[in-house]
Every structure is written in structure tokens, then in C-alpha cells.
Amino acid sequence: MNLFARCAIALTSLTASGAVLADDGSFFQPKTVMFLLFVLATLALTYWAAQRTKTAKDFYTAGGGITGFQNGLAIAGDYMSAASFLGITALVYAQGYDGLIYAIGFLVGWPIIMFLMSERLRNLGKFTFADVASFRFQQTPIRVFSALAGITIVLLYLIAQMVGAGALIQTLFGMSFEFAVVIVGVLIIAYVTFGGMLATTWVQIIKAVLLLFGATFMAVGALYLSDFSFETLFQSAIDKHAKGEAIMYVGGLVKDPISAISLGIALMFGTAGLPHILMRFFTVPNAKEARKSVFYATGFIGYFYILTFIIGMGAVAFVLGNPDYFNADGSMIGGKNMPAVHLAHALGGDFFLGFISAVAFATILAVVAGLTLAGASAISHDIYANVINRNASEKTEVMVSRVATVVLGILAIFLGIAFQSQNIAFMVGLAFTIAASTTFPVLIMSMYWKDMTTRGAVIGGYLGLISAVVMVVMGPNVWVQVLGNAQAIVPYSNPALFTVAIAFAGIWLFSITDKSERAQRERALFDAQFIRSQTGIGAEKASEH
After folding, report:
1. Residue 485 and residue 492: Cα distance in Å, rounded?
2. Residue ranges per domain, the chain?
3. Rounded CA gap, 342 and 331, in Å?
4. Using CA atoms, how far apart are residues 19 and 130, in angstroms rounded to an integer?
5. pLDDT in tens, 181-195
6. Is the Cβ–Cβ distance between 280 and 293 less than 8 Å?
7. Which CATH number applies to 35-420?
8. Cα separation of 384 and 73, whole Å?
9. Distance between CA 379 and CA 400 in Å, rounded?
């Protein structure tokens, strides 16, 4: 009996033993059945992918054989997290039109990737974004920095996703929080360790299709009950919401210009610096398919965020005030992030609730799989194969990546359980701020600025990393809400406006003041890098000078 069959049997037996029983003790409730079907299907998919994952290229980039359309769906699946689906709809439910600020911020980062980065990423890189950042620079300092920044982003994102996964699955299926987190961790270890990027890609594609279908059904259902009239839907929401017409106005969520600009910078540039998103551009065969990937991803993601607004307003119109979805004290059953789930039940009953529950679970698995693979790749490819042991064989490198995946998976489980009762809302914001202040400045400047040097990249990148962490810790989200101090030292919840500026300034200052011989050679190699970035051929890796 192979490992995947054992995993399937173990999960089924654990579930049947009472982990996800209905309130009446029955096992075959729709959400449980769909949950198991999805788990079994993805394990079978992983088995299929494992048979086709033989080389490092297969493991990291699915052999470079993913089409632009497929990769666009996978990127959308990787990017449309549970925070997007449940969080933004809940924000619209609570704040109205203001809730769209995050959706818009998440979306506008994609044109930057499409027009400025996708082609050059594909032509310059091999497996990770550090391949691009270090193309004409010293390998060791750039790769160590890139790996450190990338792993920091991945861990922060992982903690938020694992805590969210535990809470969501606990609510939907009646499991204990710890058991829910362990299931997610074990599945992710199986997907990435055995199936690599190919299994991860198809989990993300399936999740994207299911989520887009489910969200479309919910939006159309809400409009159907409103006679397909937006005016009727919005008027129903206004009549029921405590804020009345105020839900159709902006300015209640972010009130000062600095906070608004800073939030926009974090979401926009952070998107262009997320390691698990950047890694997806190496799975396509050429730059043309990379551009197609972003084009399709932007369309899918933009369409999805339009739906989240309709779903949020639909939840106000058809969930708010319904006693079936609220506790006796007036709080929403399952927590404040459940309006979309309750709307699914209101529109489609238990069956559609089961479908959306399985989709929410798939959403978590797809995002966590991408994050885990990105973190493992940073450890194995950037640190081990390019710093510690440059003579490592492909087989050894892949083995190290698989070990790193297991370690990251176990670490994610422990961190998810450890942060169960903590306020982790700031972690996603911190991950985006760090990505905007480290990965993005170093990557974009290495592509476009001839005078950038290793010293400028490393010092500027570390300045961005340190300033982002320090300013977030001293801001209201951590200093007041987590640490319990009376007043924050840094008055802004999101300091990206300052930390991104610090990173770019550091890169510029420490590059132009670098007069070393190596710096002169690095500047001279910019032309070779440019040729490679445009054509994908003709210039060998400049950093090997």
C-alpha cells in the first residue's frame, strides 16, 4: 500500500471517528463528504504528479511546461486566499463600500508585474527570484539576504494562514483547532514533498476554478433575489445596515492621507514582491507565456474581487437580521469572518454550504502549499545549492528541498497552534510591508538600474527589512493591541510609505558611493543582463564572473 493510500485511509478513519461529525451525530453531511472528496482527489493528484517529478526543474517549476492560461489560473488560486474570500466579504459586510480598498490594493499590483517584471523574471531566472536579483552580483550576500527576506515573508504568511485554517475548519467541521491545523500541515507536506510544483500548481488551478464558480453562484444568487437589480440589492443593504447610506461612502476605514497612501504602497508593491507569486513565473516555457500568465491572472483576480463586493452586500441584505446565523448575544455564529459562508447557506442550503466549505478548505491548502514550496526553495536552492554547497547534485538539492518542506510544515503546525489565541491580524500586513520593502526594491532596481551594486542591494534591503519589522512592532497593531501599551510609538498601522522609501534610498546611496573594482564590473555587466532579460538567450549568468 503506497503512502497516499495510507494518508487517505488515515484521514477518512480520523474523520469518521468523530472529528467532523454533524451536530446530530451523522457523518454523511454535505460539507463532510465534499471535504473528504477534495482531500482524496488532491492526494490522487499528488500521486500522479510524484510520478512525473524527477529532476530539480520538475520539482521547482513543474518542468517549465505549464501554459500561460494554466499558470494564470494557478496564480489566481495562489493569490485568492481565505483572507480575500472571507475577509474582504466580511469587511464589505461590516464597512460597506470602504471594504473594497483592500481588493483594489491587491489588484493594482498586477500591472506592475505584467509590464515591468514578468518577461525579465522569466528570462533571467531559473527557480527563484533570487536567481534574478543575484544575476550580476555576488552570489552569497544577495542570496542570503533574498532567502532571509523570503523566509520571513513566508513564515508570517504561514502563521496567519494556519491560524485562519484552524479557526475556519474548527467552525465548519466541528474539529478541534489543533486537529484542524495538523490536517492542513500533513496534507501540505504530502503535496509539496512528493508532488512538488506540479501538484501545487494543479491544487491551485482546481481551487481557483471552484472558488470562481462558487463566488459567481453566490453573486448571481444574491442578484436573483434582488430581481437582478443592483439598486434593489444596495437599497436592501442600506435599509438593514446600522450605518444606513454611510455604507456606500468611503473614508470610514482609512481616514488620513498618509495611512491611505501607505496601505496602497504595501498592497501594490507587496504583491510584486511575494516569493510564492514570483516563483510561478518560472513554471512557463517562455516570456510570452509569462506575460499571458499575468494577463489571465489579473482578469480572474479582478473578476473575483468584483464578486466579493456583491457577496458582501448580499450578506448584509440576506444574512443580517436572520436569527439562524446569530448567537443569542447578537454575535455572528462562527465569528465575524463568516458572512460569506452564511450567505452560501441562505442561497443554496446545506448542499451549497458544503460546497463553499470545501472551497474555503481548498483555498487554504492552495495558498499554504505555494508558501511552503517557496520557503523550501529558498532554503535548498538559494542557501544550500548556491552558498553552502555549490557542487551539490540536482538529486541532493531536491532532497534538501523535501527535507526543508517537512521542517517548514511541522514548524507551520506548531506556530499555528502557538498563535491560536493571539491577535495575528497584523501578520499579513507585515508580510506585505516586508515584501514591498525588501524583495520588490532589490528586484526591480537590479533589473532597471545600471549603477546598482551588491553593497547597495544588501544594505538597502536589510534597511527595508529592519525598518519594516521595527515600525510595525512599534505601531498600533502590535504596540497597543498585542503588547497592551497605552499609545503607539509609531502612529501608523502600516508604515510602508516610510520603509519602502528607506529601502530605495539605501540601495541608491550605498550603490553610488561604492567605488570598488567589483562594483565597476557589476555596472559593466548590466548590458549583458539587459540582453538576457529581453531575449532569454545570449548572456550566461553574469554573477559567475
Report:
1. 15
2. 35-420
3. 13
4. 42
5. 898 888 888 888 888
6. yes
7. 1.20.1730.10
8. 31
9. 8
